[in-house]
Amino acid sequence: MRLHPNVPGVRRRLQNGAEGQRKEQRGVSRIWPGGANGMAASVRDADWAESGLGPVEGWPPSLRQTLDNLLSQPLPAALLWGENLLYFHNDAYVGRLALLHPAFGRPLLENSPDFPGRSAINQVLAGQTVIEDVPRSVLMNEDNPDCVMVLSPVHDEQGEVQGVLLTLAARSGEGFLNARLPISDGYRALFNVLDEGFGVVEVLFDADRCPSDVHFMEVNAAFERLTGFGNAAGRTMRAFASDHDQHWYEICGRVALSRRPERFENPDAAPARPYDAYAFPIGEPRQNRVAILLRDIMPRLQAEAALHANERRKTFLLELSDSLRPLADPQDIMAAAGALLGAHLGADRCGYGEVDAAGDHFTVVRDWTSGRTASARGTYRIDDFGLKLTADQRTGRKLVIEDALADPRTQGVESAYIVAGGLRATLAVPLMKEGRWIACFFVQQGSPRTWTAEEEALLWDVAERTWAAVERARVEWALRDSEKRLRVAVSELQHRVRNILTVVRSVFARTFDRRGDQEEMADHFKGRLDALARSQIVVTQTAAGTADLENLIRDELMSVGAHDGPQVRIEGPDVLLNSKAAESLGLAVHELTTNAVKYGALRATGASLDIFWTVDLDQGGQRMLTLCWDEQGVPAVSINPGHEGFGRELIEEALPYRLGAETKLEFRGGGIRCSIAMPLDMAPNRQLKEPVDER
Length: 695
Known about the structure:
Blueprint lengths: L6 H8 L2 H8 L3 H4 L6 H8 L15 H11 L5 E5 L4 E4 L18 H4 L9 H5 L4 E5 L12 E9 L5 E10 L14 H8 L4 E9 L5 E9 L1 H7 L9 H4 L5 H13 L3 E5 L8 E8 L6 E8 L1 H27 L5 H16 L3 E7 L5 E4 L2 E3 L8 E4 L5 H8 L4 E3 L12 H6 L5 E9 L2 E10 L7 H59 L6 H23 L6 E2 H10 L9 E4 L4 E2 L1 H20 L9 E10 L5 E10 L13 H14 L2 E7 L2 E9 L16
Parallel strand pairs: 19-21
Antiparallel strand pairs: 1-2, 1-5, 3-4, 4-5, 6-7, 6-10, 8-9, 9-10, 11-12, 11-13, 11-17, 12-14, 15-16, 16-17, 18-20, 21-22, 22-24, 23-24
Helix pairs in contact: 1-4, 5-8, 12-13, 12-16, 13-16, 16-17, 17-18, 17-19, 18-19, 19-20
Keywords: ATP-binding, Kinase, Nucleotide-binding, Phosphoprotein, Transferase
Pfam families: GAF, HWE_HK
Enzyme class: transferase
C-alpha cells in the first residue's frame, strides 16, 4: 500500500498527471470521503487495494460512517480499526501528538510503539471505555495544557467491537471537554454513538460553598440511557429529579473544588441501569465544571449475580449430597431432600412423590412442611389437578403456578388444590425415565409467588439427585436382602445336604443290614435313592422349599408307569409339605409303590388302588394331614409277613419319630391298607433313626 506521511506529500502526488489519471479510474474512491481537508484527501487518494481493508468501496458501513464523522471535525480525534489496528486521524491531530500521524493508514503499534494508550487497547477491545493521561513528552508542543485520551470501543453492524475511537481532551482550555466550544452535528453524531455515557456538568454552590445542584451542559444518548435523565442538556438536576441522591452533588462538588478525579458506582440505578462513574475536573477552576464518564455495569453485575448464584447452588448441592449419602431408607432420603430444599427456598411445603406404573396416581410418602401448612402425604389422582397442567407433566415439562386461584389453567379444579393443602404457588419438575413419568419433585408456597429461573434450575438438580439416591438405596436394600436370602439359602442347603446324607446313610444301612441277594439289595437301594431324588426335585422347584403332596405321589407312581384310571384313583386337597416331610413321605410312598408293583394292586389284574387324604383340625386347632393307601382285589396277601423290611420299619417307626405321625400298616385279605396321620404346621426336627451297630 503506497501512502504518504503528510498532507503536502499527498498534494504533490495529486499534481502528477499520471496519478491524476489513475485517480479518475478509481470510481468510488474518487468520491468518498468528501471534504477538502487533508486527511479526507489522504483516504481518497491512497491505494488501499493491497491493504488489509481492500478497496474503499468494500469497506463496511460502520467504518465509513465513523470516518465521515471523524474527518469532518475540528477537534482532535483518531480511529484504530480492524485486527491490525490500522490508524486514521483527522487534521486536528496534526501538530498535537508527534508519535501518531506518521503511522497513518498503517498498523499503529508497528509504527508507533510508544503510543501512550497502548496499555488500554485490550480493555477497549473488550468493550470498556478508558481514560489515559497523555504525557507532555509525546505532545508536539510541551506548552500545551494537560491532556487525557478517551479510548472508546467502536462496533460494527453485528455489534462486535472492531475499532477504538481516540479523543484528545484538555483538562482546561481548548479541546473536546471544553464546553465553550461549539459541537458540530457530525461530531455530535460521533459523540452519541459511544456506548459509554458522557456528560459535562457545572456544579452550583450555595453561599456556604456547599454543592446545591448541577447544571447539565452537554450529555450524550448513553448518559441519558444509563441515568434515566431524558433531555438533560441545559437543565439542572433539581429541575427534573429533585429527590435525586445527594451523593451526586457531593461528589461533583468535591471534584470541582479539589480538582482531583473520583470514581464511584451506582449499582441500584432504578429505573435506569446501574453504572460505574468516573468524574474529573475540566475547564478553568472558576468554572466549576466536571466531566462524567459512565460505564454500564449491568453485564458485570449480572455475571457476578450468576456466579454467586452458581456458588450458592453448588454449596447447597454439596450439602444435599452429604446429607443423603449415609441414608439407606428411600423414605428417609425423600424426607431429607424435601427438608433441605424447602428450608433453602423459604417454602411452605416441599417433597418427592412417585407416579404409579399406569401414570394415573401420584403418591407422596413423606414430605417437609414449614409448620404453616399440613403435610401432603397420600395418594392423589393426577388428572384431578387439571388436564392442561398434567399434560405438560406427562411430557416432561415443568409445572409453574404462581397463584392456583388466579391461574386460568386451574379453573374448575380448585377443589383439588384445597384438598392438597390449599397452597397457592407450585413449582414442580417431572422425572422421565425411558419415556415414562416416574416421579416428581415439588415445592409450594401458601401465598402467591413468582418462581425464578435459579430456583427452577436448582429444583431440576435436586430432583435428579434425589431420584438417584432413592434408586441407589433401593438397589442396596435389594442387594442386602438378596445377600441375606443367599445366606439363608446356603445355610438351608447345607442343612438339607446333611439331612440327605443322613437319610442316605440310614437307607443304605437298612437296605444292607440283612443277608440276601446283593443284586436285589442294590436294586432296592437304587430305587430308594431315586425316590429321595424325586422328592428333592419337587422341593427345590419352589423358593420356600416346599413340595405339593399330590405331585409327590404322582411322580412316584409315574416312575413305575402307573397313573389315574380305573385301577388307580388319587384324590385330596392341595397340601404343601416342608422338605423333611417330603423326604420321609416320599420314601414311604416309594416303599408302598414298590410293594404294590411286586406283590399288590399294581401287579394283580382286576385289583385297584385308592390314594386319598384329608386335612382337618385337631382339638388344639392344629392342622392334621391324614393320608390313606388302600389296595383292593389282590388275590393273595400274607397277613403275617415273615420279617420286617425297610418299608415297614420306615412307616411304623421312622415316620412317628421324625414327623410325629401316627401310622397304621395293615396286611389284609385283598391288599395292604396304610394310614398316616401327621401334623402339618409343626413337624419335629428329627432325622431318620439309624440302626444300632451290633457288631
